[in-house]
Structures are given as C-alpha cells and as structure tokens.
Amino acid sequence: MELNVLLETVAQQQGASVQPDGVTRSLRATRVGQLFTADWKAELVLAGMAYNVTVGGITGGANVALITGGGAGATTIDSDQPEMAIGTPTGYFHVPLSFEFAGQVDIDADVSEGNVILFADTVKTIPAPVIASATLETPVNLLGGGPAAISYAESQVTGANITSPVCSMLLAYATTQGSEVSAAGYAVPDLQCHWNLPFPILLKGPCSVIACWGGTKAVLGIASYCYAEVPISRFA
Amino acid sequence: MDVNGILQAVAQQQGANVSTGGQLRALRTTRVGQLLVADWRTELILAGAAFSVSVGDIVAGGDVALVTGGGAGSTIDSDQPEMAVGTPTGFYHIPLGFDFEGQVDIDADLDEGNVILFADTTQQIPLPIIASSTLETPANLLGGGPAAVSWAQSVVTTNITAPVGSIVLAYGTTQGSQVTAASYTLPKLQRHWYPAFPMLLKGPCSVVACWGGTAAVLGMCSYYFAEVPLARFQ
Q1: A179, pLDDT greater than 90
Q2: Could you tell me if residue B28 is inside a domain?
Q3: Cβ of A44 under 8 Å from any chain B Cβ?
Q4: What pLDDT digit, counting tens, does each position of B160-184 carry?
Q5: Where are the domains of chain A?
Q6: Closest by alpha carbon to A52, among A118, A102, A99, A119?
Q7: A47: CB partners within 8 A, 6+ apart
Q8: Which 115-144 residues of chain A touch chain B by CB within 8 A?
Q9: Does residue B151 sit within a domain?
Q10: Contact at 8 Å (CB) between A225 and A52?
Q11: Which residues of chain B make contact with A24, given a CB cutoff of 8 A?
C-alpha cells in the first residue's frame, strides 16, 4: 500500500501563537510556505544561556570611554594582566559566540604596531577577580530577565597578575603596523577585530577566554564579547 | 492512500530534555514555533569530528608571539609552510574556517605580502620532523572529544615533499604603490575565510598555509577542519 503524506504546517507569518514549554505545537511557516527556524546561536540565546561582557563603553550623558591596554602600566600586551577575562568552571561548556573590538593607536614611527588578541585557555579557569586590582564585570544575559551567569568575568587587570593564562586555542587576532618610507607622512591606523564564528566551539570547563590589547604605543579600545555556558551533559 | 500530516514538535525553548544516542525523540521548537536546527558544521562539531590548529601564540605573562613566514627566507616557500595538516587514507578532510592576520613592512614601490591556504588532494604531508618543525596537536572543538587522526605541524624549516596546490582555498595579498618616496603606509594583510558549504577532500590529502613577501611577514592563524570516515558520505 502506498501512503502519500502531505506535510503541512500552519501559515503564521504574523501574530505567532505562543505555547509554554512542554506543549506539542505545530511548526510555523510564512504565508508562502517557508519554515521558520532558529540556528544554534539563537537556540542558546532563547534558552537563556548566552551572555555579553562589555569592556569600555559610553559615559552617561557624555563621550565614549576607552580602556587602555597593556599590563603593569606598560603599553605592550601582558597576558597576566588582560583587558578582559572570563572563567567557566568544571561541569560547563563555554561556547564563544562573537567578539567586537575597535581601538586607537598612535602609529607614528617605522614598524610601530598595535595588536588585539582573543584566546582560550582550555586548562584552567581564571581566579575570581581581585577587586582591588581589576574591575568585576557582571555578564548580561542576552535573554533579558534570564538567569545570572555561572562564569565570572573581570576587566582591566592591573595590579595582581592572574595565573599565567595559556593560549590553548587562538580565537581571533588583529594587528596594524606602520611602514615608514620617510618621516614625512600621515597615517590613519585601523585596528579592529570583528569575529562572528559561524560554528560552535565547546570549551570544556575549567577554562577561560581572555582578551588583550596593546602595542608599541598605548592602544585604547572598547570590546564586546558574547558567549554561552551550558551544562556538559547537554552535549557530551 | 493520501494522508495529511501536520508537522508538529515540542515547544521547548528552555530546559531541553537530553536523549541518549539511538533514542526516538521529538523535535524542538521555540515557544513561537521556530524549528531549532543545527547546520552541517554544527553537526560535525557535536559529533566530535572537528578540530582547531593555532599557529602563533601569546607568551604566558607576555606579549603576542607572531610566526615569521617564508620558510628559509621572507618569500613564500611551499616546501617550508607555516602550517600543514595531513589526513590519511580512509578519511575525508573538510575545511571549516581560516583566520589570518599579519604584519609586513611595505616601504618600497611594489613591495608585497601574501598569505595562501591550499589543499593538496594527492598526498598526506610527512610526519613532523620535530627538529625542524613544531608539532601541533589539533584541539577537538567538542571539549573532551577524541584526538585527531590527522597530524599537524607548523614553522617548517626542513623541506616537506613538495605540496601540490590542487585547490586554492583562500588567498590574501597587499602591495605598495609608491607615488613619491615621502610617504607612510599602514599595510593590511589578512584573510578570514569561512566556506558556506563543505568540501570533502579525500585522504590522503593535506591542507597547507604559507605567508611571506618581499619583506618578512609575521602573523598568526587559526585553522578549523573536520575529519570523517569515508563511509559516512560515500
């Protein structure tokens, strides 16, 4: 016996019906029959598992406020004193979603340079912030009203070193360097990093993700990092 | 017999139930009926079949550590690549992504810098010779997943068997155009490549990255790939 099954769903382009979790419901389609889907990033965000950490920003009623990179009062990157660090404990995967950075650096000499790097340490979580020498950052849930993060975050580490982070996996890197032919010149350096990975990397806790920026001259910038944290049992 | 089947799934936006392999389970939707999906890259990663190789580093407690390209000189030498990953017979190698950013001192007319990622579909690169290259251990993108079957090396300074450019996967270049000698430039040499579709390179095969130019090119790269048994797709 041949059984012909016509697959149907509900055209519901506008005015989507909302069902609570646990209820069987029809899938939705546009008025011309396209199925609505949500990809892996949207899934994590809508599950309340995704967060943002912003370093630098804009002052209320005033100008942008950039963060000067480089550790220990120097301008060069010092990974012991990063500009942003997030630690995720045992029992969770840390899933990077995106990293946005733009910075300023005065490249006015031959082979002067500026750098920004985002990397993962898959060996250990960073220690809890030492507030006297770092700024505590509270990850913001990308599903407004969602639960607080299990991971902890800090920025502008300047005093006490964190335990030397290991670059187990290079996630993103951007650089600019001047090439001087003669001293008479004018340049507009471009140091920015916009990283939106199209696939998930599941970093198994304890682990950390760290951002540093710096150069031969001071690098001042703003960064915005989005990630998700999910229990190990969800995928492994 | 004609039957009309209505596509249904369980609204389960939060608190997804986790099934074991082989178990029948309902599809999931958001509370407003969007089917939750995983694309081909996510499928490979969640199967524990995808890996990352990083070339370049950040010194513990220090600055970024770039890798100088060009093998024995500053110009690219494909016998002495900056990164090479070899996959054996019995597996497909599937490139997933490549990120490179580098520095080059472009201070004369027609100076140039290049970066190239290519596939050799005829051979697997030889095992790393540790005295003349750096052994790289591919990191599984599913933390705790199995080790890679492919092997990888970087900063090669003894020739590997001349790799063949069967397929150019990604290429980036910059070149100076000097109008007058009095000038100052900020070269940008970068390549960020994420193919929208899978290429199934049949082992034995290799994927090789090189960078270099008329002056030294210093850079870092991340390369992502999957390796799957041939039987999975053929």
Answers
A1: no
A2: no
A3: no
A4: 878 999 999 999 999 887 767 767 7
A5: 38-234
A6: A99
A7: A143, B13, B14, B15, B16
A8: 115, 117, 119, 122
A9: yes
A10: yes
A11: 8-11, 26
- The length of chain A is 236
What digits encode the pLDDT tens for the residues B187-220?
Answer: 889 999 999 999 999 999 999 999 999 989 999 9
Report which of residues A88 and B22 the model is more confident about.
Answer: A88
**Per-residue pLDDT at A125 exceeds 70:** yes
From residue A5, give the alpha-carbon distance in Å to each of A127, B7, B25, B115: 57, 11, 20, 52
Buried b (16+ CB within 10 A) or exposed e, B153-175: bbbbeeebeebeeeeebbebebe
Instruction: Check CB contact under 8 Å for B39 and A40.
Output: yes
Which H or E run contains B44? helix B40-46
* Structural domain range at position B145: 38-232
Q: Average pLDDT, whole number, for chain A?
A: 90
Pick from B4, B13, B217 the residue to mutate for testing the A interface (most A CBs within 10 Å): B13
Q: How confident is the model at residue A32 (pLDDT cuts 50, 70, 90)?
A: confident
Whole-number Å distance between alpha carbons of A187 and A196: 28
Side chain identity, residue B79: D
Cα separation, A69 vs A193, whole angstroms: 15
Q: What's the total number of domains in chain B?
A: 1
Q: In this structure, how many other beta carbons lie within 10 angstroms of the beta carbon of residue A63?
A: 7
Mean pLDDT of B106-127: 90
Residue-wise pLDDT tens digits, A94-112 = 999 999 999 999 888 888 8
> Which residues lie across from B11 on neighbouring strands?
B29
The model's pLDDT over B46-105, given as tens digits with 9 standing for 90+, comes to 999 999 999 999 988 889 999 999 876 799 999 999 999 999 999 999 999 999 999 998
Chain B CA closest to residue A214: B63
Number of A–B residue contacts, CB under 8 Å: 268
Cβ–Cβ contact B216 with A under 8 A: no
Q: Which of A117, A205, A207 sits opposite B64 (nearest CB)?
A: A117
pLDDT at A151: 96
B-chain residues within 8 Å CB-CB of A30? none
Contact check, Cβ <8 Å, A80/B61: yes
8 Å CB contact between B188 and A107:
no
| Residue B74 domain flag | yes
* Residue B18 maps to a domain: no
**Predicted-complex ipTM score:** 0.84
- CB A114, CB A95: distance < 8 Å: no
